[in-house]
Amino acid sequence: MSQCYSEYMYNELRLESLGLQYPDPSVFVTPQWPFNQKFFIIYRLLVACGFIVWIVGDCIYETRTFFKEHTYTYLIYATNWSFLLLVLISLVTATCTLYYSIRSGECLDRQTFERMPTALKVQWFLQNLSYNSAIVVTVSFWSYIGILDGSEILQTPMSQMKHTLNTVYVIMDVLISGTPFRVLHLLFTVGLGSIYSLFNAIYFLNDGTIMEGRHYAYNLLDWSKPEEAVVTCVLCVVMCIFAQVVLYGLYRIRFCIFTKIYFGSECEKPGSEMQRIIDEANGPAYQTIDDHGDVTIYPDEEAH
After folding, report:
1. What tens digit of pLDDT does each residue of 226-240 get?
2. Cβ atoms within 10 Å of 224's Cβ, excluding its own
3. How many whole angstroms separate alpha carbon 11 and alpha carbon 7?
């Protein structure tokens, strides 16, 4: 068992794991679990519609209440960058799931794809960015930002909901969908965080005003106190690492439960047929859709 997990981590930390290639693209548009693919499509569409309604309402509320009708100020906050990414990925996953489900007809599995489509590479990239940043935003808010920063905008029920339900959705989706996660993909979010920090510093240096005459979004990112701001940035990098480990852990737990239920083994010794399937595709079965939309699991033919 320990040797098995050691090999997992060895594979995760290889440079190749930083890329966006995957041997079975169908896992990005199907659930991990063998339920009706039509239900999964409906789930994706409902989530996308819900996020659109939510962000429109949130933007209108914060603009009218705090930003004096200056809508662009909404984009000064890291929380809203993360929120926008969640809205975007919900639209992308809904579109890709619907498109590939219709295109594939009755059978949506690894044989549907000759290679990893660019659209699914973009989806995977955005999922890592949005899901990781959502966890970082939630942990940051409830551990220190929401406590140390008394800004009115951060203390409203809408703000608290936005800093909580984002991660609730992420955890739920990771446990439902077939999407894999890679530890090294944390570098995507670290890059995004670096871009935000640079943007925040430039905005401050150019005397950009948010509200109450402040030139910064968060008290802990006040660049007139550079040491405090730098420490905050470093903490965010640490939380990016933590968030990606959480995502990877949830993904492995989900897959091991699936394997245990349908194959009676969580992890077999390296070199076994089951282990080969796990290593190559992180999915021990094909999923096919019958005329009624029901999903059926078929073990890899080579495993017989």
Report:
1. 888 888 889 999 999
2. 9
3. 6
Distances in Å between the Cα of 17 and the Cα atoms of 88, 180, 202, 277, 302 are 24, 11, 33, 17, 25
List the structure tokens of 78: 């890291």
Q: How many residues does the chain have?
A: 304
Count other C-beta atoms under 10 Å from residue 5's C-beta.
11
Per-residue buried b or exposed e for 67-93, using 16+ beta carbons within 10 Å of the residue's own CB: beeeeebbebbbbbbbbbbbbbbbbbb
Which residue has tokens 């509200």? 211
Cβ(221)–Cβ(200) below 8 Å = yes
Structure token pair of residue 60: 């209108």
Greatest extent of the chain over all pairs of C-alpha atoms, in Å: 69
Give the distance from CA 191 to its chain's centroid. Answer: 15
> Structure pTM?
0.82
Please report where in the chains the tokens 């499509």 appear, as a residue. Answer: 41
* Residue entry with tokens 């590479």: 121
The string of pLDDT tens digits covering residues 79-105 is 999 999 999 999 999 999 999 999 887
pLDDT tens column, 98-146: 999 998 876 777 777 888 999 999 999 999 999 999 999 999 999 988 8
Closest C-alpha among 162, 88, 94 to residue 125: 88
Rounded to whole angstroms, what are the CA distances from 95 to 49, 58, 76, 98, 99? 12, 23, 28, 5, 6
Other Cβ atoms less than 10 A from the Cβ of 273: the count is: 14
d(CA 254, CA 117): 25
